Amino acid sequence: MQNYNHRPLVVCSIALPMGFPALVLYTAHSVARSIIPLPPVSFLLFVGASIKSRASLSDPCHLGREQAITEEPRKLLVDSGGFELVEMAEANWCCGGAGSYNLSHPEMSHEILARKLSRIADTGAELVTTACPACLIQIASGVWSHGWQRPVRHLVELLADRQGV
Question: Which domain holds residue 34?
Fold first, then answer.
């Protein structure tokens, strides 16, 4: 884990379960463990990408590092979403978003993002997904500023599209 000598990461998905462990579960974790299976890929629909779209997943820090949730998002992406997972090097490294880190430390945030974008480019994936709104905004901003024609979407958004929701 990279140490940027700043405050520890505290987000609602970590703090809330401390007080309400039976009520709060991360979406991808709870859906992946659900007893109600999602329809098979052959019944799923996604506008703008083929059934076997190549997707790369960027692990949010608060999931991978803080909660050890890494396999469930991948399982959903492949098994329920029908995507071909293209693992990126250092998928578990921060993208530099970290909530408002990109606002409070823009220079360092930009350096961290540049490394993440390099790893994304190396995958050759058609799209990038993550399960964190701050990561989504940070990565999408970087992709847009480079002029790449590569969608950056939230994991739940991709699955909803495949479900026709």
Answer: 12-162
The CATH number for 121's domain is: 3.40.50
Residues 61-70: tens digit of each pLDDT: 878 777 888 8
- Of 1-15, 37-51, 150-164, give the lowest mean pLDDT range: 37-51
Long-range Cβ contact pairs of 16-23 (< 8 A, separation 24 or more): none
The total of other beta-carbon atoms located within 10 Å of residue 119's CB is 17
pLDDT band of 126, cuts 50, 70, 90: very high
As a whole number of angstroms, the distance between CA 40 and CA 120 comes to 28
Establish if 4 belongs to a structural domain. Answer: no
Close Cβ partners of 77 (under 8 Å, ≥ 6 residues apart): 55, 57, 83, 85, 129, 155, 158
